[in-house]
Amino acid sequence: MINLLKTNTTIAIIALLLLINACSTPGYKIEGTFENASGKNIILEELTVRNLIPVDSTTIDKNGKFKFSGDLEAPKFFVLKTGNSDLVTLLIEPQENITITGDANNLFKTYTIKGSEGSKLVKNLNDVLNKNMDRVDSLGKIYKANVDKANFASLKVQLDSSYLKIITSQQNYLKYFIQKNSSSLACIPALFQQISPKNYVLNTTEHFQYFQMVDTALTKKYSDLEQVKAFHEYVKNEGKRLKEKVLNDKVLGIGAVAPDITLPTPEGEELSLSSLRGKVVLLDFWASWCKPCRNENPNLVANYLKFKDKGFEVFQVSLDKTKDAWVQAIASDHLTWKHVSDLQYWNSGPARLYNVRSIPANFLLDEEGKIIAKNLRGDALGAKLTEVFSNK
């Protein structure tokens, strides 16, 4: 009798512990009512750093209602969608019970949400951006309607000014949003908002302090989250890039004396960039295999012939791999100026020295070897040379 009592007590305690653990398991619930959605399939996906992962799907009933639920131990981004373009982004915390409504025909602009502060922040971000994007679209329509008219030049000035005001307004909103909510994951999409494809509202060059602010707050609060780790790595790399840029600007900025280069010519003789002091010199990086470089060479030839008797010289550094290809391209393109190369391709010493990561790239130097302009191509080169030599 005693043993049976002990056994029953043990079973009861285990059952109680399992019940407590089951009740305390973090999770979420989503309940929604959409207009114009009866019979539609609705999908819930997790938005990770790399891709979208299917989580669940269901059919919206005849009253436009649906439900989702699941386990959740840490905040995550989700996407709720009834079509490829008709979607809502959610930022869900554990134990949130969310209610969402909207019109399935225009879900992105009509949905409302309750029970999720993170999702409300994301919605607020999207609402403000949508309003400003609509304003930009209106300017674009005015631009297209008047591009062929006589007063277009003055109108364009007004449109450019209006566009700048819109961008500034969106930037100021995002700065305020980030300062107020720096420890929310919603700040990550805020920092990467685009007013048009690849046209980011904020950027690390001008607004790095806001990236740092969010990184510090999120790393402190959510150090183990994948999104936070990835964002932290991004901010760290951007910080390194900006430091390199500052150093690069000191060494290669306008007004700096160009670092000297000494390399073999096609004839095997050593030639230094500094030996051309007293002339205006275009230091040009190119290669025989570089199509844009070859396309630009006729423009260099035309400007060289026009200004060489006034004191203009070209010092061209090739990133070729072989001497034959280099020399053949020189002859083929009629390049009659100074040429040097170490034939090291992208391992070229001068290319690394001048932080050249793509070609063609060039630096215009004055008679003292100081950098006065960078990456002049097409008409811009001729215009700058005309300006330089008109003052002599």
Features:
392 residues, alpha+beta, Immunoglobulin-like, Glutaredoxin, five-stranded mixed β-sheet, 17 strands, disordered N terminus
Quaternary structure annotation: single chain
Mean pLDDT: 91
**Helical residue percent band:** 40-55%
**What is the radius of gyration computed over CA atoms, rounded to a whole number of angstroms?**
31 Å
Q: How many E strands? A: 17
Uncertain segments of ≥5 residues (pLDDT<50)?
Answer: 1-7, 12-23
Please state the overall shape, judged from the principal axes of the Cα atoms: elongated
Tally of domains: 3
Question: If strands are numbered along the chain, what order do they take across the biggest sheet?
Answer: 15-14-13-16-17
- How far is the first residue's CA from the last residue's CA? 115 Å
Q: Name the helix and strand elements from N-terminus to C-terminus, one letter apiece.
A: HEEEEEEEHEHHHEEHHEEEHEHEHEEH
Largest sheet: 5 strands, mixed
Report on this structure.
This protein has 392 residues and is α+β, with helices and mostly antiparallel strands. The protein folds into three domains: 26-115, Immunoglobulin-like, CATH 2.60.40; 122-252, no CATH class; 262-390, 3-Layer(aba) Sandwich (Glutaredoxin), CATH 3.40.30. Helices cover 46% and strands 23% of the residues. It contains eleven helices and 17 strands. The protein has helices at 2-24, 107-110, 117-146, 152-180, 187-191, 204-221, 226-252, 291-307, 323-332, 349-353, 379-390, and strands at 27-35, 41-47, 52-59, 65-71, 76-81, 87-92, 96-103, 112-114, 194-196, 199-200, 262-264, 270-272, 280-286, 312-318, 338-340, 361-365, 371-374. Strands 15-14-13-16-17 form a five-stranded mixed β-sheet, covered by helices on one side. Strand 5 (76-81) and strand 6 form a beta hairpin. Helix 3 (117-146) runs antiparallel to helix 4 and helix 6 (204-221) packs antiparallel against helix 7. The longest helix is centred in the middle third of the chain and has 30 residues, at 117-146. Residues 1-7 and 12-23 have low confidence and may be disordered.
